[in-house]
Every structure is written in C-alpha cells, then in structure tokens.
C-alpha cells in the first residue's frame, strides 16, 4: 500500500498529516524557500516538458521532467547528478 492509499483509507491520519503540513509550510523558513523557488522560475521559466531540478551543489537547472521525476524514486537518493 502506498501513502496515497493509506491516507485515503485513514481519514484521521489524513487529518493529522494535513494539520502538520499546514503548520510546517507556513513557517518563515518554508515561505522564504518557496519564494526563492518562485523567483527562480520567474527569472528563468522552464520550457514545455521541462522541470526545475536541484543539483547536488544546490543550483536550479532545467531538466526533462521524465528524467527529473524518475531519478528520485525509491529511497530518494540521486545517483545521476
């Protein structure tokens, strides 16, 4: 069972998770981080079929969405950059 199925079948757990996320994403650090990503995307928008990708050095670059989303599958560790 993946997480979406778990939270779909457990409304109390979903409510708890959403409450945590609401608090976490409203912190000044998260808002600042989100603002920086939005600013980077406005300065250098991604062409169609591309995503912003975080390199190991922390730089944001355009990368094919299929490559970017496939890399961090199980475990979330990057082995390609």
Tell me the structural class.
alpha+beta
Strand order of the biggest β-sheet: 1-2
* Spatial gap, N to C terminus: 30 Å
Number of domains: 1
Q: Largest sheet, described in full?
A: 2 strands, antiparallel
- The count of β-strands is 2
Uncertain segments: none
Rg over CA atoms, rounded to whole Å, is 16 Å
Helical residue percent band: 40-55%
Give the helix tally: 4
Portion of residues in beta strands equals 5-15%
On the 0 to 100 scale, the average pLDDT is 88
The gross shape turns out to be extended
* SSE series: HHHEEH
Protein topology:
Layout: H1 3-9, H2 11-24, H3 28-43, E1 50-54, E2 60-64, H4 65-71
Antiparallel strand pairs: 1-2
